[in-house]
Amino acid sequence: MQEIDPASDHAGLADTFMSRRYFRKFETITAHLLRVAAVMQADGALSKAEARVLTRYLMALTFTFRALSMKYLLAGRDTGRFFGSLAMDTRDSGFPVAAELMTMANDAQQAAVHLANMPSEEALKDDMVRTIIGAREVPTRLQFALSQRYYYQELSRGQLFWARNDPDCQWIGDAEAGRRRFLLHWAVYDSQVNLPVVYLMELEDGGRTALPKDQNRWPEVQAHLMAQSLGALKLVTIARGFDEDFDDLHPKRLRRFHLGPMYSNAYTHQSGPLRDVLADAASPEGQDWALAWTDEVLESEREIETRAGWFSTVERQVFALDPFSGRGVDTGATRTQRAIILPQRPYQVLAERDPPGFADVRKFVVSDSGQVLRY
Question: 100: Cβ–Cβ under 8 A, 6 or more apart, which residues?
Answer without folding.
Answer: 68, 86, 87
